[in-house]
Every structure is written in structure tokens, then in C-alpha cells.
Automatic annotation (TrEMBL):
Protein name per its UniProtKB record: Tetratricopeptide repeat protein
Record SUPFAM superfamilies: Thioredoxin-like
Ranges of residues in domain Thioredoxin: 37-156
Pfam families, per the entry: Thioredoxin, TPR_19, TPR_20
Source superkingdom: Bacteria
CDD domains registered for this protein in UniProt: ybbN
Coiled-coil parts of chain: none
Amino acid sequence: MQPRNMSMSGAVDLSAVKAAAEAKEKAERARAQRAAQPGGQQAAGAAQLVIDVDEAGFEREVLQRSAEVPVVIDFWAEWCEPCKQLGPLLERLAQEYAGGFVLAKVDVDRNQMLFQQFGVQGIPAVFAVIAGQALPLFQGAAPEAQIRQVLDQLIQAAEQRFGIAGARVEPGQAQPGEQGPPEPPEDPVLAAAHAALDAGDLGGAVQAYRNVLDGDPQNAEARLGLAQAELLGRVQGVDAQRARKDAADRPDDAAAQLVVADLDLVGGHVEDAFGRLVDTVRRCAGEEREQARLRLLELFEVVGPEDPRVTAARGALARVLF
């Protein structure tokens, strides 16, 4: 197996999968009832890093989840001897990577539509889904070192291209509904950053949030605060009427479009801001295209990864890029 370049080329069209999932709502409800029983799927695995997926639950458990974390799909069958070697290895790596990706296991005997939709030629076969876009990773059992290399590339591509960093968890993290340990006191540096932002001290807030991220790069609260502070700083003193005229007069000027996208977001016009930046990525090339892409990822941070408008914009960005 050769580690793949995470270019997202050859992405699988998942529209038929989505349509089939909607048509199987009854089967999905039955599956959810089975999973909720004692010892069922909902109780398995720390923070649900390994899940069993069928056609009915594919949209929710894979497509929607892929907007927040890379999803690795393991196509397997009970009669497949190589599957019995690869499956436990992937499950162990899912726990070790602690939220860097989610492993979705698909039994091909029970989910023929998914097997055919992905064009699987033989099993075991491993695919990934990022921001609703699927790509093949490898087929057959492979050495652990090579699998790690592929996973590392996948996680890096998801974060750099789409701003999807997953949700890191600690081993043995409490399941939903369980009583966990008391929350630690708030970081005083983070508290100071919040106070500066509330007081309108945008420069102080930016620096304080950066100080937090220097020590904890995955701190979601600090990343959100920094994105908000930087956004507000960029629109301070901007003549909105003139900025909008400049953007209308120069549709291929990336800098002009970025200013108006910021104004749209601050004004609550989220979809307009996202659409403008996706269109700018499509129109531009080189450094300007990269600036528009990065600004779009920054605005995703402000709105929040779970917002359906972010999910839709991630898909639009993927279609423009690949």
C-alpha cells in the first residue's frame, strides 16, 4: 500500500447515499432503539470513536459528522479473514488518536448499497469522508506504520484545507449522561481575554487569546474568541457603503471581497458572507485564492462548526477546490 496524497481527487458522489438514507427512516428508528438498549452501541467505546454504520444512519453518522471530524470507513465482512486483522488495528488506532478521526465500520453483507455506491472492488477497503466528500485510502490489510502515515496525512489535510481538527478526548472520557469530575477553574488568561473582548479592547483580547493558544493550540474557546476579536478589529472604521461599492465594481479583487464578507458576517448575513468567499476562491488564483480560503475558515470558527450553514459552505468550498 502506498500512502495517498490527500488531494481529494476522485471523490465519491454521495447524493444517492443521502437519498437512500432519507427513504429508510423507519429502519433508522429501529436501529436507534437497539443501540439504546443496555450494552448497545451507544454505550460502546470512549466518546463513540468507533461506530457501526448502516445505510439508514449513514447521512447522520458519517456525512454530517464529517463536517466536524474526519470519518474513516472500514468496509468488512464476517467471512473475510484479512478484515479480522485490519479491523482491530483500526479500532485500536481510533482510540489512540483520541478524536483525531472517527472509525465507521460497515458490514458489506448487510449494506450492499453502500458497498456499490463507493465502488468497492474487494474487502477490507478503507475510505475517508471529509466535509461530505469521500476518497479512497487503501484496500487490503496493511502494515501499521503505513496505515499511521495515511491517517496522519488525512488529519493534516482535514485541518489545513477545511479547518476540521476533530474533538480530542482523553482515554476513558465519561459517556453522555455519566457524572464526570468537576470542571477545573477557568484559566485566568482566558478570563482576561474574555474581559478585554467584552470591554472593546480588541488588541488586548487578540494578544490574550494568542497567549492561551500558545500553550493550548486546541483550546476551542480561545480559538473562537480570537476569531471574533480579529473579525471585529478588521471592520472597525470601515466605510461600509464605500466597501460594498468597491466590491461590486471589482468582483475579481479578493481584498475588496474579503472586507465585505466580514461586514456581512458582523451584520448577521452569514450565508452571504460564506457565498461571497466561496465565489472569490472560485474566481481567484494563487495567493489571493489562498487568502479567501483562509478567511472563510476563520469565519467558520466565528459561526461554529455545528451550524448547518457552515456545513453547507464547507461542501461548497470542497466542490470549488476539488
